[in-house]
Structure formats: C-alpha cells, structure tokens
Amino acid sequence: MKRALVIGSINIDRVYELEHIVRPGETVSSRKYRTAWGGKGLNQAIALSRGGAETALAGCVGAAELEALVAVCAETGVDAARIRARSVTTGHAIIQVDANGQNCIIVEPGANGTVGTDDIAAFLDGYGTGDVLLTQNEISHMPDVLRAAHEKGLTVALNPSPFSAEILSWPLECVDIFIVNEIEGGALSGESVPEKVLDALRRRFPGAATVLTLGHDGAMYADQTESFSVPAHRVTVVDTTAAGDVFNGALVVALSEGRTLPEAVRFACKASAISVTRVGAQNSVPYRTEVDVFNL
What is the rounded radius of gyration, in angstroms, for the C-alpha atoms of the chain? Predict the structure, then answer.
C-alpha cells in the first residue's frame, strides 16, 4: 500500500442547526449548536486513516490547540508529526445546517494562512515516488505545494475547494487527479454540462484524470482512455457537511491500495453515502469495515 500525505487545513467547526439557511437581512435562532475539529485537511486525513491508509497530516494550527489536536490525531490513527504550531488563532468554520441536511460554510483561515515554503519542504520530507498527496485550497502557498510534490514524484490529487479564481493560474499541470464537484469542475473547464466538463478537462490536462462528483446523481470519471458514471446510493440525508471530504479520502485510500479508478470511485461513493446519514464532520467518517459491507 502507498503512503498517503494530506497537506491541508485544520479548523475548529462551529455548527448551527437551523430550520433553513439564513437569508440576507434575516436573523434566526439555531435549534442546536456544537463545536468540533474540522477543516478539509483534517477531515480528509481522518477519512484516509479510517479507510485503512497509512496517513500523515501536515498543516498549521494555533499553539493553544496543538495538544488537543495531537490527541485527536492519535485517536484516529493520523500521524501528526508534521503539524506546526503558530502564534495566531486556529482556523475556524461557521457552518449552517438546515432541516434537510444541506449546509453553507464560512471559513476563517487563521493559522492555515501561515504555511510558508520552508514548511512545505518539511512537510514533504521523506515522501516521494509511490506516495500519494491529497490537498485542497484552504492553506497558503498552494502553487508551491503542487510544484514541490510533483518534483518529488508523488501522485498529486487536488480537490480545488473552496474554488477561487487564482486557482486557474496555479501549476495545474502538476496534478495527476482532479477531484471536483459541479461548481469546481465548471469553473476549471468553463462548461456546465458534466460530460462537457470532463471533455474540456481531459483536453486541457491530458496527463491527468478527473473525478466529478454530482451529489445525489453520483459521480463521473474520465481520463485519456475511458470514462464512466457511478450512480449514488439512495440514503436518508441527515448532514452533508463532510461528504466531499469523505469521498476524497476514500478515493485516495482505494488508489493507495492499487485499485483501478473505476473501483476507487465506487468505493468512494459508498463511503460518502454512509457519511451523509450522520451528523457532524469527523463523526460522519465511516470505518473501513462499514464501507466494505455497505450494499444499498
């Protein structure tokens, strides 16, 4: 099995359960409030670890929260040796979850915005050909992350979320696998129809594969030689907060085991389906045994 490294964000989630997402000018009371560890980097690292991959997380956190975070990583089997403490606050997310389980999220970068080039070199130390990097867009110096990982020979999987216009100027030729939703895929490709999104990205990045997630419509995949669709599993949705992170982590788990991309996408769809039936981010991440027996 290949080793997996996640370079990404570490947040404290502040979750408000509401009847509906707040509209402009509206003030509402939450039905329930909770805090929990989150951030795309941490969520995806936990998804990888629970899926059975040897996983390390690299990123930055406020010094006051380092000890608690290390404990979380130890409990979930994630190597925390590459996490750096900073004198600024830990990043946080304000998450609204409505009665149908849909969400909207505001992210404050905090320590995630302090990642520098020296950190990146330290994060990647000891990794190289045969290892997999999974990364997103919630930390600073992302172009340097992509270049450095590519130069060291890692397989680079990018989830360009949250999407921003500057991503279009990144060295995306360093990416081996794009994992995008409809919004991200549309922004990268300039297309809106899923098949056209995949065709455009295949032409623009001939050396990369693309996995396009479609929510309740499942997922699609394309590279230079094949394309296919995987239907979504029908489940009762409770909370979609970390569904994408679970999908991404599970996909990389399967790839790290040498599975084909079609097999990996099917595995990821099952893991994501399980996650949306549960409340929260980390609490929703399924264990490998659960995914293996899931057969709805």
Answer: 18
Helix (H) or strand (E) holding 134, with range, is: strand 132-135
CA atoms within 13 A on the CB side of 71: 5
Distances (CA, A) of 85 to 66, 82, 208, 224: 6, 10, 34, 42
**CB count, 10 Å around CB of 176?**
18
Annotated active-site residue 223? The verdict is: no
The token duo for 75 is: 């409990």
pLDDT (average), residues 231-258: 90
Instruction: Give yes or no for a contact between 170 and 42, defined as CB atoms under 8 angstroms apart.
Output: no
**Percentage of the chain lying above the pLDDT 90 cut:** 81
- Residue 247 buriedness (CB in 10 A; 0-12 / 13-18 / 19+): buried
Return the residue matching tokens 């000891």: 126
pLDDT classification of 139: cutoffs 50, 70, 90? very high
Helix axes 243-256, 40-50, angle to 10 degrees: 50
Asked if residue 210 lies in contact with residue 198, where contact means CB atoms within 8 angstroms, the answer is: yes
Q: Of the given ranges (54-63, 136-145, 169-178, 251-260), which has the lowest mean pLDDT? A: 251-260
Q: How confident is the model at residue 17 (pLDDT cuts 50, 70, 90)?
A: very high
Catalytic residue among 79, 176, 223, 245: 245
